[in-house]
Structure formats: structure tokens, C-alpha cells
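Something for you to look into today, if you have time. Could you write out one complete protein record for me, on any chain you like? The space below this message is yours for that.
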Amino acid sequence: MSMAGNLRKVTGLSKVGGLRKVARLTRRPPRVDLSHPARSPLGSSVVNCVRYRDGVRVPESDDLVDVLQKVRKRGDEFLWLGLHEPTDQEFAGIAELFALHPLAVEDAVEAHQRPKLERYDDTLFAVFKTVCYVEHEELTATSEVVNTGEIMVFVGQDFVITVRHGRHGSLGPLREELESTPEQLAKGPAAVLHAIADHVVDEYLNVSGSVQEDIDQVETDVFAENGARADPGRIYQLKRELLELKRAVVPLSRPLEELATRPIRVVEPEIQAYFRDVSDHLLRVKEQIFAFDELLNSILQAHLAQVTVAQNEDMRKITAWAAIIAVPTMVCGVYGMNFDYMPELRWTFGYPLVIAVISVACVVLYRGFRRNGWL
């Protein structure tokens, strides 16, 4: 039985065509990233399964159990198994084969976890939130800006199992990049864990830069000449999307700190220095996110102040015009009471005089309001 055949038994693959594709993938490095689609085109959750010796891919066609035994017997190899959104049935056999803790297995299958780092005997379980920037022509109150996913990583002395959730966060290019530097990959499973953490944090930096462009555009619109008419829904939408990014970034600080400072059996001290560099990059992203949040609060407060000022100006204009209109209304109201004995009712120049008085009063009021900035 080939490794592909064993993968069918372990993960529940049933399509013969899919098995042949898995077999071909285990014999040669893939040049196409198969982890981009929502489900692997292999017909299951298995994206790739590769054995490495001294940082170099080892072609393998044996049974997966036999391969794992060989890896553990030699002591200088490790296995990297990549999965995408596996079901309980697909992951059960793999969990049993690698003796994974049931709690970690449940988290890996269910997803929707906070970034964290947990140790189960000799196995390390890490959860990373992946993010990607959603391109849009124009930011609206309903635009999706940040899309999130998850990568779970099981790290042992001789294996790495990655479980990815979401339509982005592909590890295919990362695998190829690592294979191009065998000296780094030769440092073992911990080097893969560092590469994944570094890849995830780099995406945080890219997304934060794109979000900053959206914030700059909103800021420009708010402080434009007609900024009071800008849609405040865009500001709230950016704050909601920024919250998604914050939920991915902030909880990751503690796991990276543990990986960089605390002694962990499966992480060599040499690799911990690399995690300190990733932690520094994460700190930079955190500072940017907090700064963006404060900036959006300031933009929102400025917009609300502009709206209040615009409303006050409108109310002053309405009040001024109401005062001007009140003069002819009052005069016409008095002379419209139809009393028999009222002054100037029978006078020849009574009507022109009333019109003149109304006009002069209205002009005086208009100039006074204009001079005081009410009109």
C-alpha cells in the first residue's frame, strides 16, 4: 500500500482519482498551490504530506505508518502533513496515529479559536488567526475590509501537522520558500512553526497598511469642505473591521512571548531567537492597530462636531429668516383684524407707508443678521 492509500484509510478518502493525485504529489514537489481553493482538489482535506531529511524533500511511496516509523527510527527526519478544514471522521485516524490530545483535536476541527499556545506532553499546539485584506473600489458602510481564517499547528519532535480554515492563508508558497532554504528547514519542525508565525505576522503588517489607506481616505473626506455630509457608517464599518484585526493580533502576543522566552522541548534555543524577531513585528502591528483605533475615534468625534456645527448654522439661518418674516406677519396680522376704527385705514398713503416700514424693518434685520454671521 502506498502513502496515498494509507491517507485514504486514515482520512476517509474514497475517490480513486483523488488517491492517484495524492500519490503523484508525494513523489514530486507540487508547483501549484493546492491549498488555495476552499476544499482541496484532491477530494479530501489532505493538501500535502511530505517527508524531509536535512531540510530536503524525500520522495516516498510507502505506507504512512511505515514512513512515520522510518522517520522516528532515523531521528534526523520529520513529516509535514497539511490539511484543510478536515471533518471529525477525516481527522480521527490522523489524531490516533500521531497521538494528538483530544482537546487539541477538537479545537483543530471546530475552529473559531483565539490565538493560543498549549502543550500536551511532547506535542505543541498553536493557533494562529490569519487575515487578508478584501479589495474594494470604494469604501461603503457595508464594505468587508478584513477577512479572517485560522491555522492550527501541531508540532512534535518529528512531525508538523497544519490544519487550515478559511479560503486564504495558503501555506503552499511558504512551503516552497522553506524548501528553497534547506539549511533553515533542516532545523526541524520548530523551524516550520516559526515560518508559519512569521508568515502570519507579515500578513498582519500588509493588512494594516491597506487599512491605513482606507482610514486616510475617510479622514480626507471628513475634513473636506462638505465633510459634515460624509457617511459616518464608513467610520463605524472601519472600526468593526479593525476590531476583527485586533482579535487576531492582540491575543497572539502571549504565545509568541512563550515561544521566544520559555524553554520548550520541541523548540530549540536557536529557533527561539527567531521567535523574538516575530514578536517584535507583532508589537509593531499592535501599536499600529491601537493608533488606528484612536485615530478613528478622533475622526468620528470630529465628524460629529462638524454635524453639530452644521446643524447650529442651519438653525441660526432658520431663526434669522423667521425673525425677518415675523415683521410683515405681525403688521399684516394687526391690520387684518377688520376693526372699523383703526389709524390710517382711510389715509391715501397708508398702504405705501406700511409697505415701506415693513421693507425697511426687514432690510435692517437682514443686514444685522448678515453682519453677525447668521445669514
